[in-house]
Each structure stands twice: as C-alpha cells, then as structure tokens.
Amino acid sequence: MYSKDNAAPFPPMGWNSYDYYNTMVTEAEVKANAEYMAKNLKQYGWEYVVIDIQWSDPDAGSQNPVQYIPFSKFCIDEYSRQIPAPNRFPSSAGGKGFAPLADYIHSLGLKFGIHIMRGIPRICAANHTKLLGTDATADQIANPFSISRWNGDMYGVDYTKKGAQEYYDSIFSLYADWGVDYVKVDDICNTNMYPHNPYSAEKEIEMIARAIERSGRQMVLSLSPGPAVIEKAWHLEKYANMWRITDDFWDTWPLLKAMFERCEVWQRHVGEGNWPDCDMLPLGKLGKGFGSEWTTRLTPAEQKTMMTLWCIFRSPLMIGTDLPQMDEATLSLLTNSEVLSLEKNTHGAFQVMRDEEQCVWASYGNGCPAKGMAVNIALFNLSDLENDVTVRLSDIAGVNPSKTYSVRDLWEKKNLFPLEGNAIVSRTIPPHGAALISLF
Question: Phi and psi for 263 in degrees, rounded to 5?
C-alpha cells in the first residue's frame, strides 16, 4: 500500500493556475507566478506551483466561451500519455516534457504540480494506441461507460482489464522522471455524472496510489471535485492526501457560508497526512481565462473569514489569482505568519457552536497537555449586519475554568487583556467577518 504520510505531513500551500487562467496558462505565466512566490510568499510556507487543466491541449482557449474543446487534438506520446503542448510550454519540446520547467521551479526552492483527468484519452482508445509495459492497447482498458459530465476528453480505466495498472504506472513513472511533486486528479473524488454512485472511481484511486508508490517519487495526491463522500472517508484517508469537500468554490458569500457545514461534517478526518480540501482561495484578480477578468467579489471581511476558517480547519491553501498583480491588502492577508501557523502547529479543530447568526471554532496548539496547550478560538459573524459574537470559554473543551490565560489576537498580532477560563468572550464583528484569538 502507498505510504503517503511523508508526502504531505502538513496541509499543502501554494498556487494553482485555474481561477485566473482557466485552461490557458503558458510557461511564461507559470514562471512569473513562481518567481513572485519565491520572492514574496515562500518564507511564509507557500511552496507548490500547480498547472491546472488542459496543459496538453495546444488549442486551449481558442474556442471561448467553450471551455473544453470537443475532440481536441492533445499532445500525446507513443504510449498514450499526455505531454505538454510545446506551443504553450516551449521548454517541453523534443520529448523533454515538464522536466525543464520542474527543474526551474525547484531551482527557486519551490515544488511543482500538475492537474490530470482520471482515465485515458478517448482519442487513444479510438486509435488503439500502445501502452508502456504491456501488449494491451488503449481501447482494451478504456471503459466507455465511465466518463465525465463536464469534460469529454477521457474514458475511465477499467481496473479489471489487463494493462490498466500498467497504464497508470507508466504515466506516474513519466511524472516522476519530470520531477512532479503534486498531482491533482479530477473527476475522481465525486464522479458527479453518476449521482447514484458518486464514488464510482474508487478502484482508479487505488491504481493511482499504487502507481505513485511504484514511481519511486513522493508525490502529493489531491482528488477533485467534491463534495467528497463522507461514507468513504476511510478509503480517502488510506489512499489520498487531499480530497475536495466542495464542488468548485468561487468568490460569493453563499458558497463561503456553506463551507461551515462542510467543515463540520469533515472535522474528525483532518490530520496525519489527511487533508479535507476546502478548495482554492479566490482572491485578487480572477477569471481572465474565462473571458471576463474581475476582482474578487468577497468583501475584505469575507476574505478574512475564508482565511480564518481554512486555517483553523487546516485545509490545504491554494491561491487562485495572478500573483504578480496581487495588491498589498491581499498580500498582507496571505502573509500573516501567526494565522498561517495554525496550518502546522495545531490539531483537533472542532466546531463549538453554529446557528444562522454566528459560529465558533476552536483548536489546540501542539504540545504537552500536562503543561497546558494553547487554545485557538475563531469567532464568525454569519449575519448580514454587524454583530456581537459571544462564547463562554468554559464551554470549549480543553479550557481550564480556574486558569488565567494570556490572550493574543492573531490577525492584529497583538496581546489583549488576560482572561479567566470561565470568562465570556464577546467581539463586535462586521457582517460576514471573523476574529481569531489564542489563549495560552
């Protein structure tokens, strides 16, 4: 079985091309974002640079508003494996693949990731192309009754067929040769074409995990889209590092408010290499590749709420903007070391209470319980008006009612007045906003 704990001992943090570039990102744009990350974000823990969907399509974006071109002519090698389109990724020419770009990302002290759709290209099945390591051909492992609802590029792989595992072994061996550190596999966490069986790609997850192990390279395995199936949490924890607990998350308050319920459902499945994923952070400039660039619709208060919930829950953090265009306010939001420290230095996050007006979460700092651990408390105003969010500290498991605590405001990076463990904390918070304190 694939031992994955070393691949993602903490929630991965990085940048993903999708929210800004859609299917159209180029090598030059990836490098520009990587260089910005290395200069401005790496010291705060941001390290992954991830190219999202359609990197093998030389014509991506040419038929907007069609996001995925029907029967597009992918760049594919002799063994049915997608390779980067050289018109978009010039350094890949001559069979080099993503190796030169990965080497450049690594030279900046960062890690390199790619997106794939599960399965095998339909064009390969139609042409009966070869597979590496087996005399089976693409058509013999393809399952034409397993497809994506929203992208017509691939057939699922039938795990019962000769050559199925060899195919997945071959593509992850290629990624290992390129120096890939992170693979986001799509249409696999929730195969929403089949609502009666949303986890229908279970065996493909197992084949992929096995292929990563056999590749000899440690790679983070991220599964999309959501919502993940909670009844299959045991399987996700066994084979993956990250799995989406929501469908695509965008910059609206209703979607953000809905994340509180999703985090509540998954709160007991966080940690030890297992990271339920709240999806990307739609901040700054968005949507150029969708034909209409815009600035995030989340208010400053909502942006702080998103960061607070993602961090106390310990979701992976993937920035979804064009980094070189990022303004100072967004940069400040993403470089608060005290807030980001929750990703690596806490455990046991749980929802204390939630109603239509407010929500409270808590988590514990790492350390020895006998000596007392820090208790982190996030207060959220879910209402449309400024509101006082209140919690009695003694209602939070782990708070000692007889102890006097020092108090730190993590967003403001300042100490507040000490509090008794039986005190009532009340903060006036703007609409859809949040506060984050630590008791120690």
Answer: -65, -40
